[in-house]
Write a structure and sequence with these properties.
By secondary structure, this protein is an alpha/beta fold. About 35% of the residues lie in helices and about 15% in strands. It has eleven helices and twelve strands. It has helices at about 25-35, 40-45, 50-55, 90-100, 120-135, 150-160, 175-180, 185-195, 215-225, 255-265, 285-290; strands spanning about 5, 40, 60, 65, 75-80, 105-110, 140, 165, 205-210, 230-235, 250, 270-275. The strands form three sheets. The chain has an eight-stranded mixed β-sheet with strand order 2-3-6-7-8-9-10-12. Strands 1-11 form a two-stranded antiparallel sheet. The longest helix is centred in the middle third of the chain and has 14 residues, at about 120-135.
Amino acid sequence: MTDLLPPHQPRPAWLRRRIPPGSAAEKVRRLIAENRLHTVCQAAHCPNIWECFSHGTATFLILGDRCSRNCRFCAVAKGSGQSPPDPQEPSRVADAAAILGLAHVVITSVTRDDLADGGAGQFRRTIAAIGRRLPAATTEVLVPDFKGDLSAVKTVLAARPDVFSHNIETVPRLYPSARPKADYRQSLEVLAFAARNRPAIPVKSGIMLGLGETDAEIAATLKDLRRSNCRILTLGQYLQPGPENLPAARYVSPAAFDRWRQLALSLGFTRVASGPLVRSSYRAEEMLSQPARPKH
């Protein structure tokens, strides 16, 4: 592994963010609170939150604010015994997106293993509500694995989002420590099924670097994603969100992220965002609007 720093050192300059001046971010935060909504920006302690909020964008987190999984890299609150999906939530998301004037709406969720469909129906209803309220907007969904239930994946795809995303998150060796209730091959099958079922909808995934993976493992995971017909990729630095979460094992340099981007493009990914502060939905609209490289 190259281009790394031991994590006991202070975070390098490329991982530090300044809070933008002005009140635009507070406007978004207040809108989210007043509409009784959640964002992954807040729940996951995203380092880009104030940049995105200052630009009037946010990634909506549906199906509550507590996750039924216990992924050790994630800051989203955990818990069971949650309420059923809120029937008014899709329209509130659509209204908030309209007030913000979003041209591209990104929707993700907590994992809800307690629901028979894993929450797939709520994704479908939210996409439909956005389509009615903002017919010119594009939609992107970042879904859980639905415990491998491909009928749930099909339900989401039937709503015709413009991008279907599910994060592989890390290399298979690290799943027991980072994603103990998930399965690497199952996540690959979710992506592969989406690509087969609706080939016109681009499939997207993301990987965190810095959890202890090797370069060979990263390369192998990129190849697995391409074999699953994943076309859009994000690569970002893992940052420990809280003391109860896994510590970062290394800090990967911007130069190394550039090399991973070039490798991904050479493997046939059509769009790649790779950098220390890249996250799954960071500048998602810009990624969608980039000219796609021809598929190999």
